[in-house]
Amino acid sequence: xxxxxxxxxxxxxxxxxxxxxxxxxxxxxxxxxxxxxxxxxxxxxxxxxxxxxxxxxxxxxxxxxxxxxxxxxxxxxxxxxxxxxxxxxxxxxxxxxxxxxxxxxxxxxxxxxxxxxxxxxxxxxxxxxxxxxxxxxxxxxxxxxxxxxxxxxxxxxxxxxxxxxxxxxxxxxxxxxxxxxxxxxxxxxxxxxxxxxxxxxxxxxxxxxxxxxxxxxxxxxxxxxxxxxxxxxxxxxxxxxxxxxxxxxxxxxxxxxxxxxxxxxxxxxxxxxxxxxxxxxxxxxxxxxxxxxxxxxxxxxxxxxxxxxxxxxxxxxxxxxxxxxxxxxxxxxxxxxxxxxxxxxxxxxxxxxxxxxxxxxxxxxxxxxxxxxxxxxxxxxxxxxxxxxxxxxxxxxxxxxxxxxxxxxxxxxxxxxxxxxxxxxxxxxxxxxxxxxxxxxxxxxxxxxxxxxxxxxxxxxxxxxxxxxxxxxx
Length: 474
Prior knowledge:
The chain is mostly helical. It has 21 helices and two strands. It has one domain (2-121, 147-420). The protein has a two-stranded antiparallel ribbon. The model has no long low-confidence stretch (mean pLDDT 78).
């Protein structure tokens, strides 16, 4: 487990490589291990990548994982104003809380929650995607029109690749590179990291625009986790539930949890400028989803995420069949996996706190020294995704787009959310129509989710009006 943690720590800091890719690379090393040892190694590695990915997201606006991109929105602005310690303390401790809640759910709730997940068909999955899209207005930073436009552009980008109905390729420009759709890691890294690097180069200063001296805000970040405990718990629950639902993915969970935190806040104008609640939501959901995604993987062999799909390969290598046997014959392995997630995250957060002072000092280093190393990490991470030069070009293209969006104040989160949810929405809509015709609209789950969407939009509109009224008051 400790070897796995060490690997996960490095992988989480390197953008683009990702826990899923590293899981696949490490599978050949488990052939001679016992099941408990093998899963301790693999889960020890996989469960810490999101935690350490938050570190680079806060300090350099470079997401170590696609799911940690949302941490940039408020974590990096805090680092730029000299509050890197507080942001890191909040991100790391909320990650620990999320991982503990996710693992606890795995331990006690498999018999209860798995039937719920299995009851969700393609119509409900489509409506869940639409629920995420309904948050576009929340993520738009005040302009609903601009948010919807960028969300629509994200949905269009999500249509690149094979058509789910006919399997024909669309908008690939004759390039094999685009046959699998929009490459997510180069897209997100370019959109968020490149504009920050350009901003650093133009200013010629350190990342932190204010001198923070000794890193003294770490405990304040920890206290914020308890102060805004509702935000942390809600984000953790969202991560667990979405982790249980196969196919939605961690990236979607992180954006949905963040949007919920924005929508529930009394003053939404602070988000994107360094709101601590945004950091807490992002940190909690990223780790809570791991425990949730293990539930359908263990109980029915249905992977709750890409990483869990790779983990199924480990079951085959070790001669274990995921399913009811994991709740009876191999119950010891199941419990050891939950405890591995708990202990691995405790160890990782403890080590991170020990070295936070040194890590945060990097924000005081001059940009001329840091930029070459950050650029190297960005392009190395993008290239490592598919080992393709085209990934570097994709990073450059969307980096340029990200710079223009920052310059003209167009919101970037709705664009990412549209790309992340687009495939889920389109695929499940086709399946719903093919299987149920128009009768899928009358399913109880669809009706409930539709009412949640309407309620969320009305609530967000009400909160927006309150914010405008507060600003207009003398």
